[in-house]
Structures
1.
Amino acid sequence: MPNRVLAITGGARGIGAAVCRRFAREKYDILFTYNRSQTSAQKLVEELTPECTIVERQVDVGAPNEVRELFTFCENTFGRLDVLVNCASHSSKTGWDVLPQQIDWEEWQRTIDVDLKGTMLCSHAAFDLMKEKGGKIINFSSSAALYGDKPTYFYTAAKSAIVGVTRAMARMFAPTVQVNCVAPGSIATDWITNWKLTGEDLQAIANESPSLRVGKPEEVAELVAFLASPQCTYMTGQTLLIDGGILML
């Protein structure tokens, strides 16, 4: 039997890299994309090559031609696709905590292109490879989007829309392909250093959660692995929060 195949966007760092490590333990063949994180991508390939077949590709997931090339490469290289994880995301200080009168619409468009358009483009291409034999698509929203977070206004716009397209795709791609969505809360990835959060900042975030801590990328990866597993057969169109209990929707 050939190995199962995972394609994941934004797989070089953070939650995406944790997902790659989790699926490598299951001996999946892995194809992951990165945009700017070439060094991290190469290190991840070196780390996981002893465990599985893993290939990286630099892709702008908001560009239709690059997405087409990615999934053509997937088909030609592996001959199949079993799981797609749409983890690629874009955010920057330009889109952080801005007033409506100060919106940089080019930055807003970039966020929409990567997070929302990229999710849709990759899901459509993946479905073409999955529709005969079945598969799983796992999208990424955010607890901030479900809450209606003000500082992440651009990000909230894209990530809340992903909840809706997850439901729509679950109906369109049924019954052969299940489509679900993961909505993480505060997870300990490099946004902590990028945004220069202090220990006090992290403690304040942790105190908002009944769990009294921030989450780990590996915990999110376990949820993704369950949604992708053969044991998860009767769930589709759902958005699952993993935020330590802050929202409890």
2.
Amino acid sequence: MEISRKRIAILSPVAWRTPPRHYGAWETVASNISEGLVSRGWDVTLFASGDSVTRACLHAVVDRGYEEDREVDPKVAEYLHISEAFEHAAEFDLIHSHYDFMALCYTRLVKTPVLTTIHGFSSPRIMPVYEKYCDEYFVSISDSDRAPGLHYLATVYNGIDLSLYPLQESAGDHLIFLGRIHPDKGVHLAIEVARLSGFPLLIAGIIQDETYFREQVEPHLDQTVRYIGPVDATGKNELFAKARALLHLNTIPERFGLVLAEANAAGVPVIAMDLGSCREVIEEGVTGFLVDNAGQAVEALGRVAGIDRRACRKRVQQCFSIETMVEGYERVYRTIFELEANRSS
């Protein structure tokens, strides 16, 4: 059997639709991998919510994501969904999981090899599961976001659909923030930079921490600092068209940061905190600037006019496109098939 005719199951989360309407980074990546593999001739089944949109074969036992339908119990949905994929494991040559630690607990119950893309470690409390299953196959999404002792086969950077984000030739006069409204993402720092620099700020994203929004974001909203809610790709492009720069002043190490690549794809320079993967995604002085605090971010704003917007997009095309990502996973799949063949011989 040609490798591209191997049967691949992509296990996407069911918090949101795949691909998501607004927020949902893991679902976005699972979708991009599925569609990219289908384009290259792979036989792909996507395990996702029933309202998902895909050219792969869709297999669903959960009608809607539990974040979009509050009548759905998250744990019930998750375990019905994960168990369904593993009950069909014998139909596939590989299961590619984007379901964090929970799906790992099923891996020794099936003969089909399982590859887990680790999209981040949400808490030290989940690490005992990774430690128990440390010899399974893993991929990291950045070199910086790795845990010791796990059997990593590669780092494969997330890829985005560049057709969704056309190049914005000219800079706007706004600063923009795109992401979860949560202390980890540094919305309060973006507001500080806006105040210090005098540039207006547009904030978009889901409110994940209501207390944080109420205490550290909402009191600062006015005519120059505005919160516009969650946005889809069209909404992002409207923001990119107005953007002088994207502010990504994360307060914890970034795992990857899809929005950094999306902004750069549109030609928008990024000013990011130098934590975690930001150094891998942003090329200093070429696609944006890395900073250590709000004061440095304000200083960097004085230099963004020197960023070549076409260079921003070119780097995304080279490093963070769907095609580049899928080629990386194809190499990982080949490695797994070779290892499995050697084990059985």
3.
Amino acid sequence: MSIARGRFVTFEGGEGAGKTTQIQRAAQWLRESGIEVVLTREPGGTSRGEQLRKILLERNEEPMPQSCELLLMFAARATHLANLIEPAVARGAWVLCDRFTDATYAYQGGGRGIPTGDIDALVQIVHPHRQPDRTVLLDLPVAAGMARAHLRNGTDGPDRFESERVDFFERVRQCYLDRAARDPARFRIVDAGGDVEQVAVAVRASRPAVPARTAT
């Protein structure tokens, strides 16, 4: 008996870039090809991870220190990897994840100014040998993304991250683009400014090759 090796594909981008829509479309055409797909997100993905997500996103009178935010992100990631991502990839599924560690470098590193070395150290603890097989970066100018996010939120209002200033999101976007430039083999930058179908076609073209089946 043989199985195809699973794939771990992450979708990154700033607020309003359309990650949720595009990840769902990608899952649909992969499933139509007979591939098992697991959709997930960060922070979150598991029961414990979703509890940590709530803590991270809720607006609260108590300030959250940057170190607390960073450690909570990696705590959620640790349980997500161990209990969902790694088992799914091991059985041959494609895991499509809405954000992963690149988001931590962009938001906590680029946005908050946390030193890259601090993030690197936590990567070595939580997932030293796991990187995405492909990262799709949905890129959109900050002003356009914020306008989309405002329409999406409606009466719910922004969460703790969406409440940040424009210059925060400009730093986040630049950090994403810098990381993509340094790792072109893994990243594919997709212009998220087009209509949903145009973006979906570009996302599909950026997918990694379906791996050959290997003996077990």
